Amino acid sequence: MVTVEDGRIVAADNACTLGEQKFLGEPRLKGPIQREGKGWKDITYDEAILRTVEMLRDAERPLLFGWSGTHVEAQCIGVHMAEVLRGVIDNTSSVCHGPSILAIQEVGHPGCTLGQVKNRADLVVYWGCNPIEAHPRHLSRYTRYAEGFFLPNDYLDRTVIVADIRKTETGNIADEFVQVTPGGDYAVLSALRAIVRGKRDIIPRSVAGVPREQLFRIADRCLNAKFIAFYFGLGLTMSRGKYKNVRNAIELVSELNRHTKATISAMRGHYNVYGSNEVNTWMTGYPFGIDFARGIAFYNPGETTAIDVLARRECDACLVVASDPAAHFPRACVEHLADIPTVVIDPYPNATTAFADIQIPVAVTGIDAAGTAYRMDGVPIRMRRVLKTDYPSDEEILGRMYAMLQEDHPP
Amino acid sequence: MRFLMNTGRTIKQGITVECKGSPGYGSETSRCFMHPLDMMEMGVCDGECVRVESTEGAIVLAAAAAESVTPGTIFVPYGPYANHIIPGATRSTGMPDFKSTPVTVEATTDRRKTVYELMEEMGGVAYHC
């Protein structure tokens, strides 16, 4: 429930710590701004849209990046724009769970919805993730502290295992914490696969810092569970091995399914990043890092992904929508943003604002704009707006840009 | 001393992430969590500044004692400070090595920069609301 006074949200009840701050989010830009020398000036929405379209028209290899903080309807327009412009479109999953998607493309995804986990999972494994700090309601709504249909005694009925390279807050509430040596996830997952396959005799005394006895105990807990929910985070996708770590985790879950029921899912972050992967896949066949330079959709992570395109100083213009690459990309990428025309579409001034030629503020989906967003388990949810403001939505702004670009390329 | 730098989320980083110019965001993302024994060996106290250097460059952070961090590693919350010294190479995956950057850490008397000072150093122009 939100409390609105004088057109502003002043309180958000029952939201988590992170959600409350998003509802109360201040300060927002009041209108579009344009960089002028070492300062900024206000411009109108019409001017901002026209100048952005001119920038994109003049570019030979534009990059359209972000998309995870906006609704599906706007993401669809973004893909159409990239195709018309013959540009590269990428979303934040390339620096988040992109490697997880690469693994899923190799070996599939034995996943399930959060409701199944809540009602059935008597063993929950969190690997390389820290939901207490990154997904504060995950444990209370779906796992450790959630009452389920088949698990009425929440805390007592469930076992929680946490594997990580440091003992996080989530590790502190686990029944069993597995301390893995940095970069050792692949080896530990391989050892568990071998144990589940009945090869206990080949396991050395310790694997990547995990004692053999603990590996046996974890494997036994898994084999004796009725329903295992395995969640993994960026601890697997960002460390050595990257998508191969995730592939190994999925294959462990596949092995476990020979003995019991087991599912695996990614702890997705940026709120509609899943939607961006879905939209891109419906429309192009690929989930992220799509290059339209050939006139058709081409996908090659490591070549057509935003980090690589920027670090190689390849793109000559950038449209950033609903994300903040200047805060989350390595310096080599950010320095190139400073050298090329850049437009940011985002409600808030952020680190990328400093590199923008123009920033266009928009309504926030779920606050003052309605739209569809995907939950971390792939369930689409219609987001209603709770506030009426004069800010246009991402869909309106991008729709106007796309209409102007279509004039250059009539069907 | 040589360390392996790990980056990740913290609740304070998540709360302030929509307001990058705020002192809270700058303060949280410029913390360098280290094991107290490593800090003792370096002669650094909680809150004192350390210079963290990788092949990409160097950044000044504030040391923060945390027993949860494995000795020989440091943990820095996601943000512009850690990314200032993370290489842009992705090993053909699209994903940089956000959780495994080798660094050296030493005590320093230099001060931490603000987020906007970092952005201006890279060619940006700060926008103040």
Automatic annotation (TrEMBL), chain B:
<dbReference type="GO" id="GO:0043546">
    <property type="term" value="F:molybdopterin cofactor binding"/>
</dbReference>
<dbReference type="GO" id="GO:0016491">
    <property type="term" value="F:oxidoreductase activity"/>
</dbReference>
<dbReference type="InterPro" id="IPR006657">
    <property type="entry name" value="MoPterin_dinucl-bd_dom"/>
</dbReference>
<feature type="domain" description="Molybdopterin dinucleotide-binding">
    <location>
        <begin position="3"/>
        <end position="102"/>
    </location>
</feature>
<dbReference type="InterPro" id="IPR009010">
    <property type="entry name" value="Asp_de-COase-like_dom_sf"/>
</dbReference>
<keyword id="KW-0560">Oxidoreductase</keyword>
<protein>
    <submittedName>
        <fullName>Formylmethanofuran dehydrogenase (Tungsten) subunit d</fullName>
        <ecNumber>1.2.99.5</ecNumber>
    </submittedName>
</protein>
<dbReference type="Pfam" id="PF01568">
    <property type="entry name" value="Molydop_binding"/>
</dbReference>
